[in-house]
Amino acid sequence: MIPIPKIALVGRPNVGKSTLFNRICGRRKAITDRRPGSTRDRNYAEASWQGAAFELIDTGGLLLETDDPLLGPAAAQAELAIDEADLVVFVVDGRSGLLPDDEAIAARLRRRGKKVLVAVNKIEGPEDGTEDFARLGFARMLPVSAEHGQGVGDLLDAALEKLPRVAIPEDVKAPLRIAIVGRPNVGKSSLLNRLLGAERSVVSAIPGTTRDAVDSPLERGGKRYLFVDTAGIRKVRHLDENVDHVAVVQARRSLERADVALLVLDAEEGLRDMDATIAGYVQEAGRPVVIVVNKWDLAGDRELKQRAFEQAVRDRLKFLAWAPVLFVSAKTGKGLGAMLAAAERAHAASRTRVPTGPLNRLLGRATAAHAPKAAKGSSAVKLLFATQIGVDPPTFVLSINHPVDLHFSYKRYLENQLRAEFGFGGTPIVLKVRGRRH
Known about the structure:
Radius of gyration: 26 Å
Largest sheet: 6 strands, mixed
Helix content: 25-40%
Number of strands: 15
Shape: elongated
Distance between the termini: 66 Å
Strand order of the largest sheet: 2-3-1-4-5-6
Strand content: 15-25%
């Protein structure tokens, strides 16, 4: 079987790589910003053109000489993308013209012996705009406007001519999409890198290193995963740059398109108010969740005990009482297999359907043991019938002989009964009450 070819977008900062990436993907997946350095990691997306499948890799800007503590590692990520790519699209800025960094990058690409196409970006008019870049020494130069989509089809035609044609896979089970969320610097990128066995995400002691929601595929044990390493979600007053605001929005959107969320906590720092805020975001998104306590390799030195730490988590995050808590170490890799297994179970639970018969028999036993209680008033309440109307999350409609809602404590009681009977660990449950007037 021919593997899906990989195409990497490289170039110096701010030439429009992420805009081109978003244009080809057909959605705003990478953060774009006028300042250099908005993209720091390698960002992956499966794409296709005219029936041919390929994997697209967005990279940070290549700056060959920089002391910036984040742009330097971002350039290293770009170098790794070049190594694994089957073809490189070298993006240059048609407005700025040819610059020394462009020539230096071209020389490096020639030394690597890679197939290269030059995309001269930001060419909006009828002029070709590629003449200045002939000195780079590559045969194909194509004018494009990533912002407006002009020339992108011609670029993809030229790129795929140079690669083996692989048809879009049919009937392939979609990977489990896992969003990794948490405060800055709790070790989200380190967890991802340990799982992937590669420095896919930039890791730094500087909070906020990750800004994009970076998609990274993984195959392990015959199963496919797609990890989304999101930007650390910070308090509003700490969001000094517009790109940071966008990063937080991206992180929340990543939750919405994920199958499961890994909420990462820091064993060394303990729980913070922001952990509860982010947990609330997960709850609002209706996602299954596994609570992951990272840096547990430091537990011995800090005299931490799992039972006490888990109880602290339960006390602070009462609204996620149904979420499993796992203790892991990105540094040593301990617990990561169990973490993936827990994510699989949580996703399966979120897709569970309960037949109407067993559902109503369980609720009959539950109401016989504890009579239903209305949210208001003292009238007797009877649960007439229940049915499941959806999954992801499992959603149930309860019909009662009362015009108002059930008391919140009684709904919680019924939820606990459902979890105990049908195994809804790791996923939220939605109970909707349909009242009847007398």
